């Protein structure tokens, strides 16, 4: 009887052990599946998140992604050019899965550092260079956004004298200014302003507010009646000069009409909330491939015009019609680029 009981006990123990092993095995598989919040992500910004322009726009994308996708992306702001490479390395060394950086100026550092950290994905927003399987830049077709701005400017100008200021003369900046100037000048000429023209300057800075004010004031004194600036905080100085001189400003990237709606009569807002959710979802899905630039533009609805009372319904309708043409592929942007 004792032997029989011992055999029964052994059998029960064997079944129990098999159950526990199976349960443990199942638990191990489940714990290996990462949720969105398990990925270590960070966004590197070249300026402050309250600049009402490029950095604020990117930060809004981060906030939306965290709220929508359940990610816990962090950020670091005001990172200077001399610190780009060391900042990338710092986060890669700490095991971050996805490192994003806002601006074409990060391309070189991202591609250089990525070689040493194959398990980390490097994603430059506005990036144009991808030289590795873990380098996956995302690029908003900013020249399509500047096209929208030009549709506004071409109708707003009274004398057809347009002035533009860019941060630095990189390829992306040149292309967006090429499109803006071409479209704005052509529209002014269609309105009967035969002497319409555009002048351009580069600040070679993203954060010199005083320089932006000085440059804009000079351009306005030389006849410009509509300013267009894409240079982060430099643009804030330009808006100050535009207000003081009593001419008009077309905002870009963020909604700059809130600064002074009588000066910044309209803006083209980059809907980076949509853009970031799109990009980070691709990362989570495993489709944010390296060795490729991932692009989005008017067709993906990431650019939106914002108007003040200074922009008539007629002009708004013309802008909408122009955007629809672009969405249908009826606008040859490449033909507008001065340097292909």
Automatic annotation (TrEMBL):
<keyword id="KW-0732">Signal</keyword>
<dbReference type="InterPro" id="IPR050957">
    <property type="entry name" value="BMP_lipoprotein"/>
</dbReference>
<dbReference type="InterPro" id="IPR003760">
    <property type="entry name" value="PnrA-like"/>
</dbReference>
<dbReference type="Pfam" id="PF02608">
    <property type="entry name" value="Bmp"/>
</dbReference>
<keyword id="KW-0472">Membrane</keyword>
<dbReference type="GO" id="GO:0005886">
    <property type="term" value="C:plasma membrane"/>
</dbReference>
<feature type="signal peptide">
    <location>
        <begin position="1"/>
        <end position="25"/>
    </location>
</feature>
<feature type="domain" description="ABC transporter substrate-binding protein PnrA-like">
    <location>
        <begin position="40"/>
        <end position="322"/>
    </location>
</feature>
<protein>
    <submittedName>
        <fullName>Basic membrane protein A</fullName>
    </submittedName>
</protein>
<keyword id="KW-1003">Cell membrane</keyword>
<dbReference type="InterPro" id="IPR028082">
    <property type="entry name" value="Peripla_BP_I"/>
</dbReference>
<keyword id="KW-0449">Lipoprotein</keyword>
<comment type="similarity">
    <text>Belongs to the BMP lipoprotein family.</text>
</comment>
């Amino acid at each position: 009887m004792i032997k029989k009981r011992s055999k029964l006990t052994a059998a029960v123990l064997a079944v129990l052990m098999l159950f526990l092993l199976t349960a443990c095995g199942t638990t191990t598989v489940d714990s290996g599946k990462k949720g969105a919040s398990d990925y270590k992500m960070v966004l590197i910004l070249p300026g402050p998140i309250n600049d009402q322009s490029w950095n604020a726009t990117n930060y809004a994308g981060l906030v939306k992604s965290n709220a929508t996708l359940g990610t816990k992306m962090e950020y670091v702001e005001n990172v200077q050019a001399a610190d780009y490479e060391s900042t990338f390395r710092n986060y890669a060394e700490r095991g971050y899965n996805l490192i994003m950086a806002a601006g074409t100026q990060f391309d070189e550092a991202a591609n250089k550092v990525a070689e040493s950290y194959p398990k980390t994905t490097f994603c430059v927003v506005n990036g144009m260079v991808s030289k590795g399987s873990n380098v996956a830049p995302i690029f908003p077709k900013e020249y399509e956004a500047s096209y929208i701005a030009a549709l506004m400017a071409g109708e707003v100008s009274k004398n057809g004298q347009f002035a533009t200021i860019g941060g630095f003369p990189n390829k992306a900046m040149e292309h967006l200014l090429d499109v803006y100037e071409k479209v704005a000048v052509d529209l002014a000429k269609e309105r009967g302003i035969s002497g319409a023209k555009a002048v351009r300057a580069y600040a070679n800075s993203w954060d010199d507010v005083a320089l932006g004010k000085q440059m804009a004031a000079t351009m306005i004194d030389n006849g410009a009646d509509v300013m267009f600036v894409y240079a982060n905080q430099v643009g804030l100085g330009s808006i100050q000069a535009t207000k003081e001189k009593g001419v008009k400003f077309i905002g870009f990237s963020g909604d700059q009409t809130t600064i002074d709606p009588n000066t910044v009569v309209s803006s083209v807002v980059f809907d980076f909330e949509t853009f970031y959710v799109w990009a980070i979802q691709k990362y989570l899905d495993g489709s944010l491939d390296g060795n490729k630039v991932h692009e989005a533009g008017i067709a993906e609805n990431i650019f939106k015009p914002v108007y003040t009372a200074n922009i008539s319904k007629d002009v708004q309708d013309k802008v909408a019609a122009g955007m629809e043409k672009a969405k249908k592929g009826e606008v040859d942007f490449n033909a507008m680029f001065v340097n292909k």
